[in-house]
Every structure is written in C-alpha cells, then in structure tokens.
Predict the structure.
Amino acid sequence: IILTLAALDKLINILCAKGFEVIGPVLRDGVIVVDRINGISDLPKGVVDHQEAGSYSTKREESERLFAFTVGPQSCKHYLRPPVQTLWKSKRLEDKSLEIYPAASEVKRLAFFGIRSCELHAMIIQDKVFMGKEFVDEDYKKRRENIFIVALNCTRAGNTCFCTSMNTGPKVSFGFDLALTEVCSPEEHFFVAEVGSLTAEELIREISHRVASLEEVAAAERLVAAAANEMGRSLETKNIRNTLCNNLEHPRWEAVAERCLSCTNCTMVCPTCFCSSVDDISSLSGNEASRVQKWDSCFSQQFSYIHGGTIRCSVKSRYRQWLTHKFATWIDQFGTSGCVGCGRCITWCPVGIDVTEEIAAIRES
C-alpha cells in the first residue's frame, strides 16, 4: 500500500491516542538519537549522517527525505533493557524482621518508529538471551510483549555498515507490524508500506491509503537494492567460528590491544551486547537496602573479578574475549552470530578499530 506524509503523521497520532509512547529518531546535539516523537515534524528531515571508523557527523541538506541517515549510537536495547534497573528492595520492620519485595517495574506500551532491519535482528538475538526456554527475564518479556514496530527499509548504507555480510539487511524481512520504504524525488514523496500483523491492519483502516502500483513497488525495491550494493564494509563469515577459536594466540590480538583503550564504547552502542553487573546498596541507617542491575562490559577489568582476582587482566585478553564471543562462541550459545553488521562499534570506537579489518587480518594469515 501507499502512505502519504499526512497519513504517516496520522499513524503516529493514532498510536499516541491508543496509549503508545512512540519512539523514533530525532536530531539532538548533532547526533541521531531515539526519543519520544509526536509527529513527523519531530523527525530529522533532510539530515544526512557521515560515518567512518572513529568518526561521526551530520549535516542538513536541501531534501524532503525524513530518513536520509542510517543509525545513530542508540538502539531499542535502551528501552527493552534499561541501563539501570532496581531488582528488589528490602526493609527492616519494627519487630526486626526483614521484608523483601521486588521493585515495581513500569511497563509502557512502546511503538518503535523507523527502526532498521539490523536492529530487528538484534531484538531477535536478545530475545534468545532473555526469553530462552530455560531462563526468562520477566521484565524484558513484559516490555517485549508491549511493543509495536514500524520498521524502515534502508535506502542508503553507511560507510561502516556491513549488514549484507551478516544477512541482516538492508531489507526488513520479519518481526515488524508495519514496514516502510521511503521514495522521495522532486516530483513525488511517499512510503511503500507492507503490513505484517493484524494490529497494523486494523490501524491502516483508520488511515487514508491506496494500493501500490507495480511501478511504485519496483521503485522501492530498486532503492533497497542500491543500499545493499553500497555497503561501506564487508565481512567474510564462512567458517568464522573456527577461524577465531583456532587462533587465540594470534599476534593480531596483541597488535589491536596496543590501540584499544578498553573504554567500553563498542559494547555500549552494540544492540546485542548484554553484559551487566549487580550492586547492593544500603541506607545509612541500615534499615533499607536494594539490589540494582546496571549495564556493564567485558572490556572492564573489574567485570572478570572472581574470588579475589581478575581473570582477564590484559587489554589483549578482554578484546579477544569480546570479539570471539560476538562472532564465534555466541553461535555455540544461541545458534546465531552476535553481530548484526550495524557498524556502530566501528564508528564509535575513539581510535577507529574496525572489527571487519581485525577478523580479515586473522583470516588472511
């Protein structure tokens, strides 16, 4: 079907009216971030981003495109699994007994607007981590079950993107309620939309739309195909697990460690990384306490502290742990790679370390 700009704006209004908090891309301090939006006027119209290893910038062009950019440092992980959350609280009562109760967890109805195929794949990967058959994170599950997804097919690839190598984009193939492709030219501006759920089908009935012509569908497909052909990076994934696991003493690990700052940026921006730590906090009176879970990183030296010692003391060992888990042993745990090719770890690394370059170096030698 075809949606106009007015129809898209109405879609956001309807979602808000139905109690959804609509989360979409906005421009803030020169960076594309995700935050609450109330209409298409909040979207970064005409904003284009430029990304390279260790480099990110945006500029506004004379364009009517609402989605001329790729992805910023934030992903939906921020909303599905908050960076800081209280797990439980305890209180000492007057009779000296101890009352322990779970912390109240607010679950909002969220509508993710304009998320890309790589991010949808990241959600599915995190679903396996937090909603697996044996262990289930109930808070994550509640949040995950209360979302509506308006996905966006990429019509432009970033210089650090390599989703085609990971088979995660640029076209959205599953997991959405509604998928959009923006078609914008001096003559016309519209969105080719694909309905992926009964909920979306009901919403579309409330919005002005028409059936897409074969030419319009073909135009949208050409734009997505062009994005697939202009990927800034590529990665050979054949036999990647054994390539990494059989080269744990490769000299490349030491070489990359000389550059790595162990700053944790790559894991913070990664849409699939899930490391966390737990802090116990007590009041000065000693009558109240709580347990708080926070995002953490395997790049932190303290993260591998066990029984009086740190297991991974060197930057080399921590970088090797991260890369081999992401691209190799993740497959053993969850049946897929832990990488979706979004390129965030390359862009937001202060020293521009490129995972595709590091893996290629190990493979070639």
